From TrEMBL:
Domain of life of the source: Bacteria
Protein name from the UniProt record: DUF5319 domain-containing protein
Composition-biased stretches (Basic and acidic residues): 1-10
Region spans: Disordered: 1-25
One Pfam family per UniProt: DUF5319
Amino acid sequence: MLEDVPRDPFADDPNDPSAAMGALDDAEPLTAAERDEAITDLADVEVFRSLLEPQGVLGLVLDCPECGEQHFFDWELLRGNLRQMIEKGQPQVHEPAFRPDPADYVTWEYARGYVDGVIDTEERH
C-alpha cells in the first residue's frame, strides 16, 4: 500500500538540506581497471568472511584517507558497498558502526595474511 511508504519530507523543496551532497546518480562510472579491482575486492571479502566470521570476526576496519579515522564495516556493509561501487560507481551512504568493539574487526592486511596462511597450511598437507 502506498500509505505505508515513507514520503520524503523534502521532496520538491528547493532548500532540501541533502542537496549539498549532490545527486547520487551523478557518479562517474568506474574505469575498467577500477571495476576489476572492485570485483576482486568483493571476491576477497567473500573469502575473508568465510574464514574469519566463524572465528568471531564481524568485519574489517579501514583507515579513511579523507578524515584520518578508522571506519568499521561489517561483512554485509562491505559487500553492499562493493556491489554498489560496481553497479553505480560509488559506495552506498551508510551510518557508521555504533560503538564497535575494535577487537571484533581486523584490517584488510590481517585478513589477507590469514587467508594466505590457511592456503599455505592446506597446500602443505
